[in-house]
Write a structure and sequence with these properties.
single chain, mainly alpha, His-Me finger endonuclease fold, two-stranded antiparallel ribbon, two-stranded antiparallel sheet, 16 helices
Amino acid sequence: MFALDSLDNQALLARLPSLRALEREATAELIAYLCELDRRRLYTAVACSSLSSYCIERLGYSENEAQVRVGVARLCQRLPQALDELRSGRIHLTGLFLLSGRLTSENADALLAEARGKSRRDLECLLARWFARSDVLPSVTPLPGCPATMLEHGPSAEAPAACTEPEPEPAPAPKPRVQPLSASSYRVEFTASAALHDKLVKAQNLLGHAIPSGDLAALFERAIEALLEAETKRRFGAGKPRKRRALEPGSRHIPVEVARVVWERDGGQCTYLDDEGRRCSEQRFVTLEHIEPHALGGPATVENLSLLCSSHNALRARQVFGEDQIRKKIAEATEKQQSPDTPRDDPWKSLARGDPWTTLGSARRGKSQKWDESSEKIQAALVRLGFRTAKARRAVEQARARGVEPGLEPLLRAALAELTPTVSPARC
């Protein structure tokens, strides 16, 4: 890098457009690489649970920067012509991101052509013209600085009668965020519904003696502690050890005491390590998975269990059973479900024998249900196809909630439909 102050004005102005062209070319190439990396799921090989986490943890992008690039990469997989627009400079990166949620194979040619050369503001107007939304209904919104509830002042404080200073027009509600303020404090910000607001006020009143100030931080800390205690008890048990039930051969049941030890040992985080020893940072949607697969006889022991995120569980399944085998099984199941000769169970027979799937409102109650033998068979089959346990269980539950006919075959078809959406990413 040479001293820029040595350049004359003409040379400086002449250099910037060429740098912009280089930046545009590099951005387009980066997006193309992200497309291919996503297609191959290579982010899992470097201990990342998603393309977004790869962009943040390995490429050093901010969350917003990663969101834009992942969104455009996914768009370019669906519509490769979008990458050409980016590479040529006809549409900028932010513009493609704005368009990504509205572009389809049917409108892509016309919408991209009209979007060329437009600023972000112009693109927002274009989208409003193409995809008109309903008018905003008249409303009255409390101004910031004019609190009308006890939440800002505590249960004993009175709300001010009027605002003494005019306030600017309120901006749209901010997105939820957690912002560090110091080494020991954070700012937590989100928009609450009216129902949640009423519950907060009620909680402040009930805890008036314990938390006289009505401090929201203290209130939320109590609530989170109670939630963690209840959820930990639900998932891993609590109190005196219970008598361990005898497990039938081939059962996928994991005793709660084993699950508790594995969860604490792994710190509630995916345990996948890449070749450089970096561990996946994912802590959401992690599940207990067998190191030696259950399908190959692996036992449900502390030593043979670990926590994996959905991406690395799928990666391990492909490593163990092979990509071709998994695709073959999925193809066979899909072909079978589409076959007109596939036998169907009579729903009336199931109703007559009291099949719990037909119990009215069972899916709406939102409570944990004890899976019957048929559900466990479907779940085990899906896991053997490479799907993680929690995802397979959720797919079966969603299928049942949609009112699928009772029986193995209808449930399998519906669960596979939940797990394998009809998306065929194109190569960039």
